[in-house]
Specification:
The complex is a heterodimer. By secondary structure, chain A is an all-alpha fold. Chain A has four helices and no strands. In chain A, 94% of the residues lie in helices and 0% in strands. The longest helix of chain B has 17 residues. The chains are: A mainly alpha, B alpha+beta.
């Protein structure tokens, strides 16, 4: 392949592909030109028929050559691309299936977790309710005790106040009576009593 | 300030008792204080440091002459003025009365009664009070109808309450606390 390339390069062609393309073009020109010149007079001759077949063979060969040279690699490349895409799709599918399995697993675990959370929440709610009930009972008891104490204190204060009022009224009444019945003799007697008491203290 | 007033009162008591003029000095001092109490201008004049001392002395001498104050009182007021203790004169007067009573063995007694006492009652009460205190008692009598009957005697910080009002008050307290 390398030798052929070198020879073609010495002959003036850049590459074998270029040489074959030039040759192919000349053949096409010749083959199309010859039947046209011979058409007028020799189209129906055996030579004309042979040339027609030769022309067909050349066109068919050229097409086959082009298809064989350029079609194969193209289709191989396309097949490679498609097979790569298929492999990637397979890998993606496997990854997606793995993720699906993980998600399904998580979902199943989530369901268990939700159930556990529900049970825990129910337990906590029951405990909280019990605590609140106990607290409320305690508060009720405290309020009751405080109310009873307050009532007792108010009762005591009312009694004390009533007693004070009664005592004040009694002493005021007594003072009025004493003033009404007081006479000089009684005043002197009270003064003497005070002086005697003082004298008793002095002894 | 009580210590300062006591010092001046002691000195005045020494002089007044030495000259046997305790009652007179006591009365003159009370008169001068009453004059200061009645005349805020006089008090301001005597206590104002901006007024020259000679002017104050002139005022005091004029007042002493008008009140007929003794030489002892006149000199005492001038000394107090020179020492700038005029503002303490009321305290000095109270301390002086107390010192005189102490030195003369006199005890003051406030006697409050609902009715006026006759001489026999007063004499008897004084005798009992002197028996209690062991000193000569000089009572000051007051009337208060609110006592209803009986009497209240105060000697210093001691109170002897024999009034009907106090007895009723004790009765009221007993009724309340029962």
């Amino acid at each position: 392949m390398t030798a052929r390339r070198t020879r073609f390069a010495r002959g003036g062609f850049g590459s074998p592909a270029l040489f074959w393309r030039a040759l192919f073009s000349l053949a096409l020109v010749g083959l199309t030109e010859l039947p046209a010149r011979a058409q007028a007079d020799a189209a129906d001759t055996p030579v004309g028929t042979a040339f027609r077949w030769l022309n067909f063979a050349l066109v068919f060969g050229a097409l086959a050559y082009v298809l064989a040279k350029y079609g194969g690699p193209y289709f191989r490349e396309q097949a490679k691309v498609i097979s790569g895409s298929i492999r990637e799709a397979v890998a993606d599918r496997a990854a997606a299936e793995r993720e699906l399995a993980q998600a399904t697993e998580r979902l199943s675990g989530l369901e268990l977790e939700i159930q556990e959370l529900r049970r825990s929440s129910a337990r906590e709610t029951a405990a909280e309710a019990e605590r609140i009930r106990a607290l409320a009972q305690s508060e009720v008891a405290k309020v009751g005790q405080a109310g009873a104490a307050e009532i007792t204190a108010a009762e005591r204060a009312a009694r004390q106040e009533l007693r004070a009022i009664a005592a004040r009224l009694a002493t005021e009444r007594a003072a009025g009576l004493i003033r009404a019945r007081l006479n000089p003799a009684a005043e002197s007697a009270l003064f003497d009593s005070f002086v005697n008491q003082l004298a008793g203290n002095g002894r | 300030m009580k210590i300062v007033a006591d010092r001046y009162a002691d000195a005045l008591a020494d002089v007044a008792l030495a000259q046997n003029a305790a009652s007179q000095v006591r009365r003159e001092l009370a008169d001068f204080l009453a004059l200061m109490h009645e005349s805020p201008e006089l008090r301001v004049l005597l206590e104002n440091p901006a007024v020259p001392r000679a002017s104050k002395r002139g005022v005091i001498e004029a007042l002493a002459a008008r009140l007929g104050a003794s030489q002892v009182m006149r000199n005492f007021l001038l000394v107090v003025l020179d020492r700038r203790r005029i503002a303490l004169l009321a305290e000095i007067e109270a301390a002086f009365a107390e010192k005189l009573d102490q030195r003369q063995g006199i005890t003051r007694a406030d006697v409050t009664t609902a009715h006026a006492l006759d001489d026999a009652e007063r004499k008897r009460l004084c005798g009992v009070l002197e028996q209690i205190t062991g000193r000569h008692v000089e009572p000051e009598y007051r009337l208060d109808a609110g006592l209803i009957a009986g009497a209240v005697v105060r000697i210093g910080s001691t109170i002897y309450d024999g009034s009907v009002r106090a007895q009723l008050e004790r009765l009221r307290a007993q009724l309340v606390s029962r």
